């Protein structure tokens, strides 16, 4: 995720609404498949930084 975020923030290109919606749909699918961290899990990960 961090690598993706860096690439997005370093790019000055805008994405289309279609691309935006596609990325939202993909993110929702990952959530539906259980691919996410709970608040507690995220805090434990952050404690290791």
Characterization of the model:
The chain has helices at 2-10, 17-32, 39-47. The two termini are 15 Å apart. The protein has one domain. It is flat, with a radius of gyration of 14 Å. It contains three helices and no strands. The chain is mainly α. The model has no long low-confidence stretch (mean pLDDT 88).
Short descriptors:
single chain; 49 residues; 3 helices; 0% strand
Count of discrete domains: 1
Radius of gyration in whole Å, from Cα? 14 Å
DSSP strand content: under 5%
Measured between the Cα atoms of the first and last residue, the distance is: 15 Å
What integer is the average pLDDT? Answer: 88
Structural class call reads mainly alpha
Helix content: 55-70%
Total number of helical segments?
Answer: 3
Query: Looking at the structure, what is the overall shape?
Result: flat
Biggest sheet statistics: none
Low-confidence stretches: none
Counted beta strands: 0
Sketch the topology as an H/E string, one letter per element.
HHH
What secondary-structure arrangement, pairings included, does this model have?
Layout: H1 2-10, H2 17-32, H3 39-47
């Amino acid at each position: 995720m961090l690598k993706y975020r860096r690439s997005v923030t370093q790019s000055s290109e805008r994405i289309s609404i279609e691309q935006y919606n596609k990325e939202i749909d993909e993110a929702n699918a990952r959530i539906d498949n259980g691919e996410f961290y709970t608040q507690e899990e995220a805090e434990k990960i952050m404690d290791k930084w």
